[in-house]
């Protein structure tokens, strides 16, 4: 009886305060609509932080282009920024739609210099009818030719005026290019020792730890797969260049190019020993220190120990 009277009194109170079922649903619907409107307004304001996306979407020419932004309707700086993210193939396709924008010289100049960092033609007055788009096609063709036959590739670059017939210019081109096949490049450098000499001098090993400098060297000039005269030549040239870049360190440690040469060979052998799955009994740090100091007696034990730690933690110097 008491519970029934309590329910009647509670219902009357809710009706008096306007919390009937229909009124409550109406108010709840209104609250949700207001929340959704506030949320959409908030998202639109957040999108206006850098570029007004809402404004960009309104630049569509017609309803048939809905979902497709016309770059010609945007500010030129913004259009060029968008196109600068495309590779050469996509930029050629974009030129079918936006010919003036996609054929802009600055875009193709950026593509050329990001792939081929140095060419002799960059520092010359451009000839009549020159365009960076045409230059990109020639550089791409020359790189493919080089990867098939290095001598023919270099001759192609020279015939187009892209490279000067100079070992220094060829070395700079190789140093700043990453599209050349490393196996073909190794064959070419083995034959052109004058280019190899200039390529070595382009490296700066100042204040670098010896194993790290050797890794950088072999990233640009790949080591041969087998021991031989070419590997000895590479290590000899590296040793002299490393000493030339770090004269103070060499005096402090009492190292000569011959001592660095011995250390480089020790690092290569240690790299093979620690990383090869065919070697079951790995060389210990104590053994490496003993063997290395036996070949180069003036080297401190701590320095040789740091060399071992670097190979053990980071890995092969010529991988």
UniProtKB/TrEMBL annotation:
Annotated signal peptide: none
Pfam families the UniProt entry points to: F-box-like, Sec7
UniProt cross-references to SMART domains, sorted A to Z: Sec7
Segments forming domain SEC7: 133-314
Alphabetical list of InterPro entries matching this protein: F-box-like_dom_sf, F-box_dom, FBXO8_F-box, Sec7_C_sf, Sec7_dom, Sec7_dom_sf
Chain ranges of the F-box domain: 68-111
Annotated protein name in UniProt: F-box only protein 8
Keywords carried by this UniProt record: Guanine-nucleotide releasing factor
Species in which this protein is naturally found: Leptosomus discolor
GO molecular function: guanyl-nucleotide exchange factor activity
GO biological process: regulation of ARF protein signal transduction
Function: May promote guanine-nucleotide exchange on an ARF. Promotes the activation of ARF through replacement of GDP with GTP.
Gene3D superfamilies, per the entry: 1.10.220.20, 1.20.1280.50, Arf Nucleotide-binding Site Opener,domain 2
Record bears the keyword NADP: no
């Amino acid at each position: 009886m008491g519970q029934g009277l309590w329910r009647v009194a509670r219902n009357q109170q809710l009706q008096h305060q306007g919390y009937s079922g229909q009124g409550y649903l109406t108010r709840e619907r209104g609250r949700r609509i207001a929340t959704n409107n506030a949320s959409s307004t908030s998202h639109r304001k957040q999108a206006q932080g850098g570029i007004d996306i809402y404004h960009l979407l309104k630049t569509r020419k017609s309803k048939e282009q809905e979902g497709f932004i016309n770059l010609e309707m945007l500010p030129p700086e913004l259009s060029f920024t968008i196109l600068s993210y495309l590779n050469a193939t996509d930029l050629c396709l974009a030129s079918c739609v936006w010919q003036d924008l996609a054929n802009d010289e600055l875009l193709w100049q950026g593509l050329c210099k990001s792939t081929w960092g140095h060419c002799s033609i960059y520092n010359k007055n451009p000839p009549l009818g020159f365009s960076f788009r045409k230059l990109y096609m020639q550089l791409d063709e020359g790189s493919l030719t080089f990867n098939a036959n290095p001598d023919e590739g270099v001759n192609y670059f020279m015939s187009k005026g892209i490279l000067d017939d100079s070992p220094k210019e060829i070395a700079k081109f190789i140093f700043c290019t990453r599209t050349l096949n490393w196996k073909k490049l190794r064959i070419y450098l083995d034959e052109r020792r004058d280019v190899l000499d200039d390529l070595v001098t382009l490296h700066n090993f100042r204040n670098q730890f010896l194993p790290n400098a050797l890794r950088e060297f072999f990233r640009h000039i790949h080591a041969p797969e087998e021991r031989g005269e070419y590997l000895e030549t590479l290590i000899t040239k590296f040793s002299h260049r490393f000493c030339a870049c770090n004269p103070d360190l060499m005096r402090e440690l009492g190292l000569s190019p011959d001592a660095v040469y011995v250390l480089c060979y020790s690092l290569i052998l240690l790299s093979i020993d620690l990383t090869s799955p065919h070697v079951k009994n790995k060389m210990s740090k104590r053994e490496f220190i003993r063997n290395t100091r036996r070949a180069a007696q003036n080297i401190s034990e701590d320095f040789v120990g740091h060399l071992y730690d670097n190979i053990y933690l980071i890995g092969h110097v010529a991988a």
